Amino acid sequence: MILEKQLGDPKWVNIATILITTLITFKIISTFLLPKPKKNLPPVIQTPIPIIGGLLQFLKGPIVMLRKEYPKLGSVFTLNLFFNKNITFLIGPEVSAHFFKASETDLSQQEVYQFNVPTFGPGVVFDVDYSVRQEQFRFFTEALRVTKLKGYVDMMVSEAEEYFSKWGDSGEVDLKHELERLIILTASRCLLGEEVRNKLFDDVSALFHDLDNGMQPISVIFPYLPIPCHRTRDRARKKLAHIFSTIINSRKQSGKSENDMLQCFIDSKYKNGRPTTESEVTGLLIAALFAGQHTSSITSTWSGAYLLSNPKYMAAALDEQKNIMKDHGNQIDHDILSEMNVLYRCIKEALRLHPPLIMLLRSSHCDFTVTTKEGKDYDIPKGHIVATSPAFANRLPHVFKDPDTYDPDRFSPGREEDKVSGAFSYISFGGGRHGCLGEPFAYLQIKAIWSHLLRNFELELVSPFPETDWNAMVVGVKGKVMVRYKRKVLPVN
């Protein structure tokens, strides 16, 4: 009763009114008049030409730009591409953890990889929402599980033996051309199936070449631009769809089943029980071969060039083969390839120096903050394209000792430089949520080829050490890699 009387007192009413008015006034002032805390945005690359200067600099070559700007701006900086479209680079393990670990709702692949849609086709990978894409990646995972890989290794070994049996007792070859040819043969057999490998290889190989030529740097920004290479790409994609559709229908009608990725995709079902369509199987196959064929052929060529230019590591790789042959004879299978740790490190080091993908991209759907190794915080705004560069980050001197030197021992037990600075020090295969699903397949394929070469030939690099071809979307080897060979069985004792 006393409280009710006090609240009814005009004096208390006036006090309450003053308090409410004060709170409302403070809210208005804080919202509209008080200065808001400023975001600490990354430094911006200065370009001489407004509006499109960043785009021109980007198209000249991202690595050239990164080499110029990283020493000045540090590990986090922004490039304005055009019309206020920004790309922010995160360089180094200290700032790239969020890039690799963030959820798709925070950092998305779909928007930035739309340029792949004309090549892969509708309804697959980057043309579907994340939930469907996850299920399609599950199809890839099932097709690349260990039990499948063991069967693929037998095909890889058989293809290598058949291919190199056609070499003479001695001669000179362009190693890059030879390995490109062999890799697409093994990939066709393991992924596309026996029908392609035995009957349609030349046709499919030529069509994939046209698809590849349709992937130019300008395609990242303008994937549907009506230019000649895009028209050739689209024609090749249509012909491939017809070829795969014919094979898929033939298998379904005959009930024939094969041990290859094509069959895995045909048999795959979504969680709701829906089977894959012909269009989806075709798109997934193109994505698989497109991703795997280039990276494997490029990496196998670089691996050979470095081995043939470094007697110390060539001797170590040969000694490893001799020791394995003492235990297993000439046999090569999945488990024996897994014992080849020296060869693995030699390939991994070539891949560190020459990752085929020079940039990885995401689209930021929310604001986030990164902290540099110097302890400086930067706020990355929603709407930015976020990028990191394996080609640049893999050569950071504070992560890798003498980063431009070929040194496979940097990955040996006790050193393990790829782990010292954190989980994302070595990113040739990406990492985190979107790490490359084909990494085990690629290593097995390259080891199968090079174990055969080491055991059966003496090899000598006769052309200069190759240069990097920065002009392609998938960065490869420039020019020919001429090698003189002599057939000679590796002596075990």
From TrEMBL:
<keyword id="KW-1133">Transmembrane helix</keyword>
<feature type="transmembrane region" description="Helical">
    <location>
        <begin position="12"/>
        <end position="34"/>
    </location>
</feature>
<dbReference type="InterPro" id="IPR002403">
    <property type="entry name" value="Cyt_P450_E_grp-IV"/>
</dbReference>
<dbReference type="GO" id="GO:0016126">
    <property type="term" value="P:sterol biosynthetic process"/>
</dbReference>
<comment type="similarity">
    <text>Belongs to the cytochrome P450 family.</text>
</comment>
<keyword id="KW-0812">Transmembrane</keyword>
<keyword id="KW-1207">Sterol metabolism</keyword>
<keyword id="KW-0479">Metal-binding</keyword>
<keyword id="KW-0489">Methyltransferase</keyword>
<dbReference type="GO" id="GO:0016020">
    <property type="term" value="C:membrane"/>
</dbReference>
<dbReference type="Pfam" id="PF00067">
    <property type="entry name" value="p450"/>
</dbReference>
<dbReference type="GO" id="GO:0020037">
    <property type="term" value="F:heme binding"/>
</dbReference>
<protein>
    <recommendedName>
        <fullName>sterol 14alpha-demethylase</fullName>
        <ecNumber>1.14.14.154</ecNumber>
    </recommendedName>
</protein>
<dbReference type="InterPro" id="IPR017972">
    <property type="entry name" value="Cyt_P450_CS"/>
</dbReference>
<keyword id="KW-0752">Steroid biosynthesis</keyword>
<keyword id="KW-0756">Sterol biosynthesis</keyword>
<dbReference type="GO" id="GO:0008398">
    <property type="term" value="F:sterol 14-demethylase activity"/>
</dbReference>
<dbReference type="GO" id="GO:0005506">
    <property type="term" value="F:iron ion binding"/>
</dbReference>
<keyword id="KW-0408">Iron</keyword>
<dbReference type="GO" id="GO:0008168">
    <property type="term" value="F:methyltransferase activity"/>
</dbReference>
<keyword id="KW-0503">Monooxygenase</keyword>
<keyword id="KW-0444">Lipid biosynthesis</keyword>
<keyword id="KW-0472">Membrane</keyword>
<keyword id="KW-0349">Heme</keyword>
<dbReference type="GO" id="GO:0032259">
    <property type="term" value="P:methylation"/>
</dbReference>
<dbReference type="InterPro" id="IPR036396">
    <property type="entry name" value="Cyt_P450_sf"/>
</dbReference>
<dbReference type="InterPro" id="IPR001128">
    <property type="entry name" value="Cyt_P450"/>
</dbReference>
<keyword id="KW-0753">Steroid metabolism</keyword>
<dbReference type="InterPro" id="IPR050529">
    <property type="entry name" value="CYP450_sterol_14alpha_dmase"/>
</dbReference>
<keyword id="KW-0560">Oxidoreductase</keyword>
<feature type="binding site" description="axial binding residue">
    <location>
        <position position="436"/>
    </location>
    <ligand>
        <name>heme</name>
    </ligand>
</feature>
<keyword id="KW-0808">Transferase</keyword>
<keyword id="KW-0443">Lipid metabolism</keyword>
